Structure formats: C-alpha cells, structure tokens
C-alpha cells in the first residue's frame, strides 16, 4: 500500500510539474503576442550580405594566391631552363666566376620563392582549420536539432503517460526486490540461539 501511495505521489508530482510547464509555455506565448514583433527581416538581410561579402573576400584572396603560385612556378621553370653562360666561356676564370654568381642568384631566388610557398601553405592550414570549425558548427546545429526533437518526443502527452506508467511499475518492482532482500538479510536472534 505504501509503495502504491509513493507511486501515486510521484505521479502527482510529475503531473504538477507538467502543468507548470504548460502554464509557463502559455505565458510565453501570450507575452510574445502582446509585445511588438521585432523586424527580423532587416537583421536576416544584414547577416546575408555579411556572409556574401566574406565569401567574396575569400574567393578574391584565393584567386590572388593561385595567380602568385602560377607566377612562381613560371619563374622557377625559367630559372631552371636558363643557361647562365655560353658554353665557349665555361673553362675560363671569368666563365667560372659568372657560373658561381648565377648559381648564387638562383639559390637566393629559390630560397625566396620557397619561403613564399611556405607562407602560402601556412595560409592553407589556417583555411583548413576554419573549415574544421565550420564542420564543428554544423555538427553542433545537428545535435541541437536532435535535442529539440527529443524534447518534443518527451513532452508528447500520450508517450509521456506511457513513460510515467512504466516508471511507476519499475519503481514498485525495485521496492519489492529491496524489501525481499532486506527480509532475507534480517536474522531473528531467538531462532539463531535455539539452533
């Protein structure tokens, strides 16, 4: 009987909390009707234009980077194909000196271009991290949507009633089990003395 009373009390408490939730929801709806509706269209338009401008800026940036890359590759190809001194002068000291100078020049150019390429790779890494962040935001939005759906499911009246019945039944079962366990653990001292 006590178990049943406890179950009913819990059910009553849950029902009251449900009533409070409904009242709160109604209050919110009434407040939204009474308060003047904010013009969300302007806000959305601003957001949209900001997003488009950011995308355009990114596209421009990537186009300039690609152009720079093509220029660098073309310059490298030119440098590698260029013969610094004519073959007739290669054996003379002047020819050897000019070869050394040209080699140094090529090495300096290569180092400069490599540093530029490394800088661009750094930019690419930053872009990849930004993409990862965007993916995280998408997954977070999905998670929020799932949460909202779960809340809808939980506050569906019929399903809620079924859940309450199941919870009450499980509570009663657990109480009975614990009562039987305590009974089996309890030993009467008189009977133990007789034995």
Give the key terms.
195 residues; single chain; 5 helices; mainly alpha
Secondary structure blueprint with pairings:
Elements: H1 2-34, H2 40-81, H3 93-154, H4 157-185, H5 189-194
Helix pairs in contact: 1-4, 2-3
Structure summarized in a few sentences:
Residues 80-91 have a biased composition (Polar residues). The chain has helices spanning 2-34, 40-81, 93-154, 157-185, 189-194.
What does this structure look like?
- The chain is mainly α and 195 residues long.
- It has a domain at 54-141.
- Helix content is 88%, strand content 0%.
- The protein contains five helices and no strands.
- The chain has helices spanning 2-34, 40-81, 93-154, 157-185, 189-194.
- α1 runs antiparallel to α4 (157-185).
- The chain is elongated and about 120 Å long.
- Residues 80-91 have a biased composition (Polar residues).
- Residues 80-100 are annotated as: Disordered.
Spell the H/E element sequence: HHHHH
Q: Which percent band covers the strand fraction?
A: under 5%
Distance N to C terminus:
35 Å
Structural class: mainly alpha
Biggest β-sheet description = none
Helical run tally: 5
Taking all residues together, what is the mean pLDDT? 73
How large, in whole angstroms, is the Cα Rg?
39 Å
Oligomer: single chain
Choose one word for the global shape. elongated
User: Helical percent range?
Assistant: over 70%
The total count of strands amounts to 0
Question: Could you name the ranges where pLDDT drops below 50 across 5 or more consecutive residues?
Answer: none
């Amino acid at each position: 009987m006590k178990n049943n009373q406890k179950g009913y009390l819990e059910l009553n408490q849950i029902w009251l909390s449900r009533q409070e939730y409904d009242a709160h929801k109604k209050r919110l709806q009434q407040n939204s009707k009474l308060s003047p509706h904010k013009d969300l269209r302007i806000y959305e338009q601003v957001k949209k234009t900001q997003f488009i401008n950011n995308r355009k800026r990114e596209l421009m940036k990537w186009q300039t980077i690609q152009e720079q890359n093509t220029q660098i590759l073309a310059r490298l190809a030119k440098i590698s194909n260029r013969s610094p001194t004519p073959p007739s002068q290669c054996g003379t000291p002047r020819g050897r000196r000019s070869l050394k100078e040209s080699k140094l020049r090529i090495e300096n150019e290569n180092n400069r271009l490599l540093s530029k390429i490394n800088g661009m790779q750094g930019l690419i890494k930053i872009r990849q991290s930004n993409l990862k962040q965007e993916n995280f935001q998408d997954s977070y939005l999905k998670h929020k949507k799932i949460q909202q759906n779960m809340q809808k499911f939980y506050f569906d009246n019929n399903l809620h009633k079924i859940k309450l019945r199941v919870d009450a039944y499980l509570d009663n079962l657990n109480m009975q089990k614990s009562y039987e366990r305590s009974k089996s653990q309890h030993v009467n001292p008189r009977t133990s003395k007789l034995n």
